[in-house]
């Protein structure tokens, strides 16, 4: 696609106050962005790879933002959406606008896709992960990447969990936040009853006195299992633990208490899904 085919849509940034750039303001302010992005029905795809993956999944861009040198990398995406504006700027302008150094090629403001139906997801899944109150976007992205790569069918996130579509979560997940099925729960831990009604054996990865070693679990073919992973600081809530079938632990050596939740998830998903 020659540049002339989309050159008329390329707008050089002249004023950061341009209201057409509002979707990209203060991207480094995670808590603020999580609330405003969900309310406005958007998310930000960061890097040319993530933009391309989002569009391949059927997500629709509202605009593109990038340095001019990256224009050729997204020519196919520009062609698919001939009415979507393309904003280009110098590195200093892009950093002033977004609040961080844009060094992964491009950004796109994307329309947030409709949420999935919980009962439908549960009906069609054998292995699910439930992420309770994960507070760090990088951890969430790593959890989603492990879930996608190791065979988890779907992920449920509790109401207090950070946004899977926040740009850092999507980036760390290598775009798998856009491809794996996930549902934000509305009632927690009340929604555990709905999980149980779909026939899931509910486990929690948590250090307790009567916990079973992860390696001792022998899931049967077709057995439906839900694994709960808790907040980085406090772990799984005490209230939640009263509602699970069993707690499991990863045996540790050299007096190490535990792994980071993202690392622990990879071990647990491998055991449950292999």
Features:
274 residues; alpha/beta; 60s Ribosomal Protein L30, Chain: A; Alpha/beta knot; seven-stranded parallel β-sheet; five-stranded mixed β-sheet; 10 helices; 12 strands; elongated
Whole-number radius of gyration? 21 Å
Count of folded domains: 2
Distinct helical segment count: 10
CATH architecture of the largest domain: 3-Layer(aba) Sandwich
> In angstroms, what separates the terminal alpha carbons?
44 Å
State the low-pLDDT regions, or none: none
Question: Could you characterize what this model shows?
Answer:
- By secondary structure, this protein is of the alpha/beta class.
- It folds into 2 domains: 3-111, 60s Ribosomal Protein L30, Chain: A, CATH 3.30.1330; 118-273, SPOUT methyltransferase, trefoil knot domain (Alpha/beta knot, 3-Layer(aba) Sandwich), CATH 3.40.1280.
- It has 10 helices and 12 strands.
- The protein has a 7-stranded parallel beta sheet with strand order 8-7-6-11-9-12-10.
- Helix 6 (137-150) runs parallel beside helix 10.
Secondary structure elements and pairings:
Blueprint: E1 10-12, H1 30-40, E2 42-46, H2 48-56, E3 61-66, H3 75-80, E4 86-88, H4 91-98, E5 106-111, H5 118-123, E6 127-131, H6 137-150, E7 154-157, H7 167-172, E8 181-184, H8 192-197, E9 201-205, E10 212-213, E11 225-229, H9 238-241, E12 246-249, H10 261-273
Parallel strand pairs: 1-4, 3-4, 6-7, 6-11, 7-8, 9-11, 9-12, 10-12
Antiparallel strand pairs: 2-5, 3-5
